[in-house]
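In this section we walk through a basic example: taking a raw amino acid sequence and producing a predicted 3D structure, encoded as discrete structure tokens. The instruction is simple. Fold the sequence below.
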Amino acid sequence: MYASDVEIFADIAVDKYRLCKNDPKRYFMRAVVAGFFLVVAIVLAYVTAALFYSTNPQMGKLLSAILFPIAIVLIVFIGGDLFTGNNMTMALGVFAKKCTWKQAIVIWVVSYVGNFVGCFIFIFIFAKSGASIPMLAEYLSHIIMSKLELTPMQLVLRGMLCNFMVCLAVLAGAKMKSESGKLVVMFCVIAAFVIAGFEHCIANMGIFSLAYLILDQVPPIAMVAKSMFFVTIGNILGGVVLLAWPLYAMAIKDK
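The resulting token sequence is shown next.
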């Protein structure tokens, strides 16, 4: 990691804030579209896992992990603004003294809300379509309860580990030159967090929304809010403290 790499991300952070300030509708739509892409991955991965749930759940989980990275691939190659990726990018902008923490928080809040809007719209359409909903219900009820039973510390730590890997995928998408190389790295690191059972707040927005729309027994809103809060904190710490700060601290001057 060279100082010029940090400067590149710092400039991206500046551009994000400038777009959000000068053209908030366009920036918000970028966050909404990223939410759409997350749900594409949720539908692909969770329907596949549900197909194998009663016969071979281990295979279902493996295939789910392999398929879920399509979300970050779509965001990196087509465009969109993801809250979790912004945790690293905006922090690098702050560490490089090109942004303020206030500007970083503005981007985090706007992208977080936009991601939720995108997730909910796409999930709502999917749920009302009725496609694959019956087989998803049993699988989803199991997944939801396993998420809600985690302690706050587990949620934070799993959120940290998750976003460390998500931001690594974003970093690979920006630094690597070949498209095939980007795909390999992104698929490997995103699959790692899925198969390990780490927690991603934006993906959970879509999963919890789907649960409320298709399950007969919906999870208590207080438990969902607690889960979302601690996972979000963990995701921020993973992007800022676990990755962005070490990247900035280890960067060396260009030759």
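Looking at the output, two observations stand out. The longest helix spans residues 221-250. The CA atoms of residues 20 and 113 lie 13 Å apart. In the next section we compare this with other chains.
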